[in-house]
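Predict structure. Input: Transcriptional regulatory protein PdtaR, 197 residues.
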Amino acid sequence: MKTVRVLIAEDEPIVRMDLKELLESQGYEVIGEASDGKIAIELARKLKPDVIIMDIRMPNLDGIEAAKILTQEEIAPIIFLTAYSDRELVEKAKEVGVVAYIVKPFKESDLFPAIEIAIARFKEFQLLRKEVEDLKDALETRKLVDRAKGILMDREGLKEHEAFRLIQKASMDKRKPMKEIAQAIILAYELKDKKEK
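Output follows.
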């Protein structure tokens, strides 16, 4: 099993040290430590951790703002480990996409399941996002191929299956995706129309 790489962002040196010892005693690898949000962002971008454990109240850039940036960049799941539990902060944490929120003082039994679940949820989210992107691409390809087929049927008098076969064959012959072939057909006929005007 792969060792989980953790980035700790905590402005209190003693808390940071205790957390590091605790994590390492459980087989986690602490790959970086940050004392404020700006350093946390720099280290996360550079080190690409599996999970980030972050305090909310830190100098220079607080955990909420740092988490917002890191979540948008989809670097790693973020767990807030903080002494603050007021509803407003919890709401802000939800808004920026933090996957877990643990209040200090915490028990080891709270932290380790949160880490494992955060990593699992993050991987699920990435897979879902990829599936959505693939579906969008497939839909766009289908729309373009349908449009190109329509043009070929209209202008060249081809039947639908003949137009499709022509696009498919060009895709195989040129070793290019059908989407690119369809775009080329559409563009070629648009340019032809402009010249004729």
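The chain has two domains: 5-106, 131-196.
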